[in-house]
Structure formats: structure tokens, C-alpha cells
Amino acid sequence: MNIYTYKGRNRQGKTVSGELTAASAEDAASQLLHRGIVPLSVKSQDRLFGLGKLEELLGGTPPKPEHIVLFCRQMQTLVRSRVPMNRAIRGVQGGVSNKMLYNALTQISDGLEAGKDLSACLADHPKMFSRLFVNMVKVGEQTGRLEEAFGQLYRYLELDYTTRKQIRSAMQYPLFILSGMGVAMFVMTYYVLPNFFEFFASLKMELPWQTRILINVSHFVVDYWYLLFLAASGLVWGFKNYVQTPEGELWWGGMKLQLPVVGSIIKRGTLARFARAFAMGIRSGVPILAVLESVSQAVDNRFVASKIREIMWSIERGETLVQATYATGIFPPLVVQMIAVGEETGSIEQTMTDVAQFYEQEVEYSVKNLSSAIEPLITVMMGLMVMVLAMGVFVPLWDMIRGASRQ
């Protein structure tokens, strides 16, 4: 995703400006039109030489999800108490520790004083408030149920934050194990094996091919370890930069769902977020196409987001929601069946809430049992390491012992 600065005119004819995150200039213009802003100019911000990071350091780091959750909770309480909106924003601002969020609330307060709606003020800060968030607040303003809107956002963001933490936990454990095994292999190859090979060389015995391979690998690691380090660093750097491009995000979004063991957990967590956000949008009375567009950004997976946009395009062509969902091929039969039941009974909101609860429980259970699920893979990999060492180190030792016993 790229950062774009824009200038445009709002519904009142006033000139507005700001920045937003989008995949392309066309996507940025589409977001502005969705907010009721006619774009006059859309330009990509210069992010060369780490200028984006420098701006973040100068302006503060983006707020954490828990900061936005607390903001929603406080706003719900203040709106329920009928505190004027500008006073409510200033009151919440007084307890904010994040500098970027504090500055954003200052700008929101200034916008309210200038006569703008709260949703329009929030839309000027897309890094902190997603399109789904803004749509929910906008519907709450239009229907006079702003307290309920903030309550729904609070519950949704809290559950979404919990699901994200569970998915990160699912990724961290296998990465930790693989990193530990990589370090162990390096230590064995760099420090331990050379001692064995010096011993074999002193005996001047003919070594089996497995041992000769290990000797060559060990010599390469000892002599050219810095090349391995540079190659590994280059691969990590290249991977991180590639997955930040639109094509890389799309590829990595699909690959994460196919990873052994953790892929299924990530997929269920993503589906839980999709179902929860979809149910919340429908409950608030947002049109289904606007809900799907918002949800496509809420799932935080470009591959799944592309499938959700396929659903939008299919509905625009006249297909039903269940037909469009089934055609993507990414949603399991359970989700498709629940959508079909919801369409038939007119309770799509409740059925999607049930789907979200089901997958959230599945993710929680799977994360708790991740260690037992991944143990077979760890056992196989450890077995391969032992087998390589046994064939390369112990086979010549056994040959030497057998030769000595014959003499």
C-alpha cells in the first residue's frame, strides 16, 4: 500500500486536503468519492531513503489497536452521557498517551468546530480509522444511534485485536523453532564438525561420500560464513520489501493461508474477522456493497480482500451473495451454507455473527494446541538432522571400529 496526498472539495464545496493509504491513485480517488470528496489532485508521497519512517519518528508512532479500542469505549460512555461532541473529543484527548492519536484528535476537534461531521473528520485520518470505522460512525450520526455505533465498534475491535494476537502467536512459535534449529545447525557445522574432521584426517582413512559432503559444507561455512550472512540478510530484506508491493502482498496473502499447520489457523482467523465485520456493517444498515468494500480493507489480507472484491463485482452483475461467495472458492462450505440460510431467512447478520464466534473459538483452541500439532513436524526435522550427522560422523567411526576389531 502507498501513501497519497490529496486535495478536493467536500459536499459543502470547501477545499479539503490530507493523506490516505491506497493501492493506486485510482483506488485513492475511489476512496475520496466514497467519502463525498471530489478529488482535485492525488499525488504519491515520496518515501525514498526512509522519509516515511522519519516522519513517523517526528510525528510519533501510529497508535496501537488497544488505543483505538479504548477510544471507542470512552466515546460510547461520553455519548451516552450526552456530552457535546467537541467536549467529548477533548476529554478523550486528555487521557491519550500516543502522540499521533493526540494530534489527530486535535485536528478532529478543530474540524468539528468548523462545522464538519465527526465521520468526515475521522475520514481524514485513514491510518487510524478504517473505512469500516468511518462508515459505522456515519450511520450512527444519520440514525441518531452514535452511542450504539461506538459500542459495536468497541466490541468488534476488541475481538479483532484478540484474533490478531492469536494469529501472531500461531506464527511466532514455528518461527522460533525453525530459528533455533538453524542456529543449532550453524554451531554444529562451524564449531563441532571441524574437530571430528581433523581427527579423521589424522587417521588418513578413506571417508564415505556422506562424510566428504559434510566436510565440504563445513569448510564452506567456516571460510565463507560472511557470504551466508549477507545472502540471508539480502533474502530477508528482499522478502520484506517484496511483500510490501501490491503483487507481493497478494502473493504472500495467499501463501500464508497454505502454510503447514499455521495456515489453517490464519485462514480461520481471517474468516472470523470477515464475518464479524460483515455482520456489524449489515447490523448498522450500511448497504451491502459498501459493507463489502469496507470489509475488504478490514481483513488485512490482500488475497482475501481481492476475493471479497470479486463478490462485490458479482453482486453488481446481479448474482446473489451466496452465489458470489461460492464462486470465489476461498470460503469453506460452512460459511457458504450459513450465508445461504441467512439470505433465505433474512437473518444474515445473526448467521455471520455465529460464523465469527465459531471461527474465533476454533482459532483460540488451535493456538492453545499448536505445540502438540507442530510436534510431528519438529520430530521429523530433528530426525533428519540426526540422520545427516549420523551418516556423516558416526559411519566412519563405525568403519574404524570394525577395522580395528578385525585386526
Protein architecture, described:
The protein is mostly helical and 407 residues long. The protein contains 17 helices and three strands. It has helices at 25-34, 51-59, 65-80, 85-93, 99-113, 118-123, 131-143, 146-203, 209-242, 246-256, 262-283, 288-298, 302-316, 321-328, 333-345, 348-368, 370-406; strands spanning 2-9, 15-22, 38-44. α8 packs antiparallel against α9 (209-242). Residues 46-58 have low confidence and may be disordered.
State the end-to-end CA separation. 72 Å
Helix content: over 70%
Q: What percent of residues are in strands? A: 5-15%
* Average residue pLDDT: 79
Structural class comes to mainly alpha
Largest sheet: 3 strands, antiparallel
CATH fold type of the domain at 167-407: Receptor-associated Protein
Count of alpha and pi helical runs: 17
CATH architecture field of the domain at 167-407: Up-down Bundle
* Molecular shape: elongated
The total of beta strands comes to 3
CATH class of the domain at 167-407: Mainly Alpha
- Return the string of H and E elements: EEHEHHHHHHHHHHHHHHHH
Radius of gyration: 28 Å
Indicate the low-confidence ranges by residue numbers: 46-58
Q: What is the name of the CATH superfamily of the domain at 167-407? A: Type II secretion system (T2SS), domain F
In order across it, which strands form the biggest sheet?
A: 2-1-3
